[in-house]
Amino acid sequence: MDFQIAAFLAVDGIANGAIYVLIALGTVLIFSVTRVLFVPFGDIAAFSALTLAMIQLGRLPGTVLLLLLLASIALALELFTLTRQRKWRAMPWAMLYYGILPTLPALVAWLTLGTTLAVGWQMLLALALVLPIAPLLDRIAFRPLADASVLVLLIVSVAVHFAISGLALMFFGPEGYRTEPLTRAMFDIAGIPVGAQTVLMVAAAAAFSGLLYVYFETTISGKALRATASNRVGARIVGIRPGRTGTFAYLLASLLGGVSGLLIGPVTTLYYDSGFLIGLKAFVGAVMGGLTSYPLTALGAVVIGLLESYASFFSSQLKETLVFGSLIPILIWRSLTSIQVEEEEEDIS
Fold it and tell me: How far apart are alpha carbons 207 and 197 in whole angstroms?
């Protein structure tokens, strides 16, 4: 391997790492606020790319049917819960949140079917279609088990992934799709060709990471999310509603997943189940950050992208093994450096 090949692989790895950064940050966000390891996160990224591709082909996106199904289930559950609790005044709000708002982008997609939209409007419509998915899954599967253990929530999260993957096969079909690139321009940096699409991927990851930092540090809702992540009971005591902040965390994470899908769509062909591997690789980066630190998570995601790029050069067959095998030294290091807290023995005398 000479310097030019190493540099080319580094550029490719940083581009992949930029995608993993957005998904890893969303994973940490959801876990820190709700204690849920959101396994379907990569699926949302894949759905975003598939949705944009079907819009560009002039076809009705499968996300429309998926969104209508999830909204119907979530609305039925919410109305049933409110009826049992006799909270009649909250029913109009439930209709708005779980009935009207999620179906609006589906209606827009149906009304604009067959029309040629500008690329920017196509991307906005694709984002609008995937944004409600994570909050709806939260209402259906996770909120009823909010007080369960992390292990139970993880099992449910895996089950949710397989459920929506099956639905995606029905709604999107088994075909693979690739979206049109935003730009085909190329730059020559020190003799290394770098695509403008790669620059956009890295710039978007950096921009959203910076916006997340500003949001958490300067806004009231961002500080509420941080407070809920630090102490759910304390946040509830001072008037913060963990359920509401959890829903907002899912919504914000859906945005990160949707943007990552739009960025990765032009550079690789995605299928209905492609998001699982993407989400797992981003999860490895999140583990590097201890599922708590956003800067370390971003750094870990970039490291995973570089490791994947160089591993594919030396052995494409062992690429996935090397990437996921890196979890072993990471977990050993985390175990050795973390503070161990011994459980106090109960006094039975």
Answer: 15
